[in-house]
Amino acid sequence: MTEPYRPVPTAAHLPGKLTITLWDFSWFVRTGPGEPFEDLDAAFAGAVERGYNTIRICAMPYLLFGSGLDTTALRLGPLGGGYAQQVRWYDVATETTIDAREHLLELFRAAKRHDCYVIVSSWEYQQSPAFAAEPDWYRALHAIDPEDRAVELARAHAALIDLLASHDLADRVAFVELHNEVQIGHLTAGLDARGDDAIVALTPRLERGLDAFHELQPEVPVTVNYAQVPVAVMRSIPANLDVLVVHPYIYGVLDALIETYGMRGPVEDFPQEAARRDLLRPGAPDIGDWGLPPEHAWRLDAMIVAKPEIYVHDWADAATIDRWLYDHYGEHRLAMAQKLTLWLEVAADHAERRGLPLVFGEGWVGYTPLHGQFEEGPVGAQLCRFAMSESARVRAWGSIVCSNAAPQHPMWADVALQKEANALFTG
User: Fold this and answer.
1) Are 104 and 319 in contact (CB under 8 A)?
2) 20 to 30 A from 125, CA-CA: which of 183, 189, 258, 305?
């Protein structure tokens, strides 16, 4: 009989609870003048003020340690043509140039100065390369056979840990994620499967990647994470991960908006007149007449948000969308709360059965427009409080006030809510 996998334990010096703020890829693409990460020390100081002790980032692992590209003057900036300037995470305002490896080290030095920790992840098969001035990073990633992508990410992450150790910074790493939301993005290329079937089919690739990292860094916990909570296929979560990380986006009323207006469907099925009547600002172009300039078209494959969703976020009135969500919230209120509790309990049960620490690295309502107030308004704020209380009840190791509670989002200004929610989680 095969012995069950024994997870790598988390380091004894780490906090008893991780209060997480999601800095994703924004921490390196939003470094220009006036951008939220122009001053890393100020960003960390703001995080500590709000009750956070951990950030979660795309650490650019394959770019820095696998691509072979020169990153000493990495040029980054907006997607081009004003595209996605009203979309969360995509609204990069200014061009910037960084020495990417040195910038990574400076982030970890700043984390040490502010006694914070870092969840090291990658968004490289989802968004990160889309903000580079040139497509070389994107092309290097996609040149890898899909069967080998998790292993190559593992090797890159292991080299990143070696770099941090050589600078006495490896103690800042809470744990490593090979990649963000593995079932959504280009890690599933070639599987000919969707939804839960894609999660099942992806598992052998992920297990090979986790094995490769364990061989290179046997003392560092490593995992992958999943969008939502894959309640129907929890059996397919890799047997050799060290932390269970899931993202409980419950959507509910937001799903109703997305389905009503075809925001994640094909462009040809987009209900243009209904959207114009109900959501769009005066003067909005038709979706067929709008998009990225041709010279930037490669970026569409380097990111994963559907064009109709970006179009609605760019051209709708955010207050109108908020009103739509409030108008329909009553139809979904109970189901959303029940789904959140159920998902957290399922995740907690799976983690306990396998002896894994449990982390909710993103979550709650879902992908709202940049200037929408639903998630920090009276309904969304109460969901944040409820979710953090439930995270504490199921004994999660780490949780998040809300995915929108980070320096690159307007919700960062609500200091009181973040302090309150983090206190509900830490007790």
Assistant:
1) no
2) 258
User: Domain 18-426 in CATH: superfamily?
Assistant: Glycosidases (3.20.20.80)
pLDDT at 2 over 80: no
| Residue 388 tokens, joined | 């953090």
Q: pLDDT category, 1, cuts 50, 70, 90?
A: low
* The pLDDT value given to residue 220: 98
Angstrom CA distances, 248 to 43, 61, 326, 343, 366, stand at: 26, 25, 21, 7, 9
> What sign does the CA torsion over 43, 46, 48, 53 have?
negative
**Predicted confidence band at 194 (pLDDT cuts at 50, 70, 90)?**
confident
Report d(CA 398, CA 382) in Å as an integer: 19
β-pair partners for 316: 280
How many helices (H) does the chain have, and how many strands (E)? 14, 11
- Per-residue CA distances from 404 to 81, 174, 177 (Å): 25, 21, 20
| Alpha helix stretches (DSSP H) within 80-175 | 100-113, 136-142, 149-166
CA distances from 98 to 66, 72, 74, 102 (A): 18, 7, 5, 8
Cα 108 from Cα 111, distance rounded (Å): 5
Give first-to-last CA distance, the chain, whole Å: 42
Q: Which two tokens stand for residue 368?
A: 């709202």
Query: Hey, how many other C-beta atoms are within 10 angstroms of the C-beta on 105?
Result: 16
Helix (H) / strand (E) containing 333 = helix 333-354
CB count, 10 Å around CB of 376?
23
* pLDDT, averaged across the chain: 97
**Res 135 pLDDT > 60:** yes
CA pair distance 285, 280, nearest whole angstrom: 9
User: How many whole angstroms separate alpha carbon 314 and alpha carbon 83?
Assistant: 8
Please give the radius of gyration of the chain, using alpha carbons only, rounded to the nearest integer.
20
Angle, nearest 10°, between helix axes 40-49 and 100-113? Answer: 40
Determine the residue type at 349.
D
Strand (E) positions, 155-214? 173-177
